[in-house]
């Protein structure tokens, strides 16, 4: 069995401000670094063989903290698991979107990457990583929207309506009949 732990990056200033990040390359804030330390501590009690990261800074920083704690090197930086493109919405808050485009802004074509595109791109990248390391335990640090879209491709029927929290872990397992999800959006490491 191949087990993958999907981790959303730690928090950023834009997370707190409610700004859409997309491809914008923001760093973790102080709380985000603390969250990365907390998930690293939790994972240090488990067995993981490899860790991969999105190519965006906030995910790479989270992955580096985890890798250091686990005594691993980041095995690769994967553009295929980069956050979904936020188009013209990147950098805006809900209030700014309403001011610019009105209350029906969600119905406009503002250059957003589609969920279908994210599903195809992200699930393909995760499958490729799994094929590279069959039978191993692999961590992938990425982003909320691309992870949720990817999961709809890997585990059809999985309820991904709950947004992923910063440094949450979702574990999926590949067996003979495809992928199953054994843990979704867990942040027990943040509750102590």
UniProtKB/TrEMBL annotation:
<dbReference type="InterPro" id="IPR029033">
    <property type="entry name" value="His_PPase_superfam"/>
</dbReference>
<protein>
    <submittedName>
        <fullName>Histidine phosphatase family protein</fullName>
    </submittedName>
</protein>
<dbReference type="Pfam" id="PF00300">
    <property type="entry name" value="His_Phos_1"/>
</dbReference>
<dbReference type="InterPro" id="IPR050275">
    <property type="entry name" value="PGM_Phosphatase"/>
</dbReference>
<dbReference type="InterPro" id="IPR013078">
    <property type="entry name" value="His_Pase_superF_clade-1"/>
</dbReference>
